[in-house]
Design goal:
Homodimer. The protein is α/β, with parallel strands linked by helices. It contains 14 helices and 12 strands. The chain folds into 2 domains: 143 residues, Aspartate Aminotransferase, domain 1 (Alpha-Beta Complex), CATH 3.90.1150; 231 residues, Type I PLP-dependent aspartate aminotransferase-like (Major domain) (Aspartate Aminotransferase, domain 2, 3-Layer(aba) Sandwich). A 7-stranded mixed β-sheet has the order 2-8-7-6-5-3-4, sandwiched between helices. It has a 3-stranded antiparallel β-sheet with strand order 9-12-11. The chain has a two-stranded parallel sheet with strand order 1-10. Bound molecules: 4'-deoxy-4'-aminopyridoxal-5'-phosphate.
Length: 397
């Protein structure tokens, strides 16, 4: 890229790269297309299909002519259903092209250059890049496994400065599965009450995939609602990653600023996909519980297998569909200095794609997604075990 004449990246995106997860998945797809036998447990995408009644609703909407530009903030029907479920007014809801766009809208609409966004690590890879894209400064707070990968009230308070604009929190968390309990959230809210310059973004996209009772920040701290943005979407719970519908619930002034950004970039989200999302939210919900039980049994199997591998320690997460094992002892025994190198060799030598912890701001770990069939999970775990017990780093030129 550097050598292309007359091409220059904007300052704002100097350090921005294509997500490490996407790069790894693309490399795995390339090796597979070349005929290699590859197992990929690298993507956070349910292996279930979108429910048929949701697909039918999209079909009907398209046939009924709902194919014109939708309102910028979302169709009234979908915004009203989201508002009704959250117990707020329509003015507090924006529908966007995935939860990812909600995050981007929020940062672009509020950050001035150099303003700080606190994020506990490990965090979903895009958090820091979205902040950089909006000219903000990510302030990464490592939260080790000893704290259950949780941000504590003390750590949060110590990181707040006059330039802090946001706290960005994800519960249940990608990649650790950490689920913030009511007590955890209360302790954080107590700190946040003292710093009125800090806005609070809580990404609850895995709320339906919680194996313990889920608590929303909105119910714990209603007094902070004027500076809280709750983010959610249909991608994970309803197996609708490709439909690209997410939403934000926040104060009307913030929603309207985010709408201004959205209106000058993508406009309203796909009208047909919004009809599908409405059917998902207002239709039968029982299958969510069935799917969650499938994920829970996969989780238990994966955690047990990982803990039986030499040099691997894996805590049992309470939510989402990822595990984040600590592989530092396995790396040391096998002569690996970085988890990124470990994952490169894992893919090249035994054909298994996993994401290095570095991508989530915490090296020495791996992220394994168990949103895959049991057969694929077993094949992947066999490969990981073989790699850890038999393989040394390949010589690099
Ligand atoms: N937040 C988190 C924590 C995620 O893991 C993801 C998807 N990997 C998103 C947001 C984005 O979801 P969407 O498909 O709605 O853009």
């Amino acid at each position: 890229m550097q050598n292309v004449p007359n091409f220059r990246r904007a300052q704002r995106i100097q350090s921005l790269e294509i997500s490490e997860i996407v790069q790894l998945s693309e490399r795995a797809a390339y090796l597979r297309a070349e005929g290699q036998d590859i197992v990929a447990l690298s993507t956070g995408e349910p292996d279930f299909p979108t429910p048929p009644h949701v697909v039918a609703a999209a079909h009907s909407a398209a046939l009924a002519g709902k194919t014109k530009y939708p309102a910028t903030l979302g169709t009234p029907e979908l915004r009203d259903e989201i508002a009704r479920q959250a117990g707020v007014s329509r003015a507090r809801v924006i529908v966007s092209t995935g939860a990812k766009q909600v995050l981007a809208n929020a940062m672009l609409a509020t950050l001035d250059p150099g303003e700080e966004v606190i994020m506990p690590a490990p965090f979903w890879t895009s958090y820091s890049d979205i902040v950089l894209l909006a000219s903000g400064t990510p302030v990464v707070l490592p939260c080790p496994v000893e704290d259950g990968f949780r941000l504590t009230a003390e750590r949060l308070e110590a990181a707040i400065t006059p330039r802090t604009r946001w706290l960005m929190l994800n519960s249940p968390c990608n990649p650790t599965g950490t689920n913030y309990s009511e007590a955890d959230l209360r302790a954080l809210a107590e700190v946040l009450r003292r710093y009125s310059q800090v806005q609070i973004l809580i990404d609850e996209i895995y709320d339906q995939l919680s194996y313990v009772p889920f608590t929303s920040f909105a119910t714990v701290a209603p007094d902070l609602s004027e500076r809280t943005l709750i983010v959610n979407g249909v991608s994970k719970a309803y197996a609708m990653t490709g439909w690209r519908i997410g939403w934000g619930i926040g104060p009307a002034a913030m929603i309207s600023a985010m709408g201004a950004v959205q209106g000058q970039s993508t406009s309203g989200a796909s009208s047909v996909a919004q009809a599908a999302a409405l059917a998902a939210l207002s239709g039968p919900q029982e299958f969510l519980l069935e799917r969650r039980e499938v994920f829970r049994s996969r989780r238990d199997m994966v955690v047990a297998r990982l803990n039986a591998m030499p040099g691997v320690t894996c805590s049992r997460p309470d939510g989402a569909f990822y595990v984040f094992p600590d592989i530092r002892r396995a790396m040391a025994t096998n002569g690996f200095e970085s988890c990124a190198r470990f994952c490169e060799d894992l893919l090249e030598q035994v054909g298994l794609a996993l994401v290095p912890g570095r991508a989530f701001g915490m090296p020495g770990h791996l992220r394994l997604s168990y949103a895959y069939s049991e057969a694929e999970l077993l094949a992947g775990l066999d490969r990981l075990e073989r790699f850890i017990t038999h393989v040394r780093p390949a010589a690099q030129e």
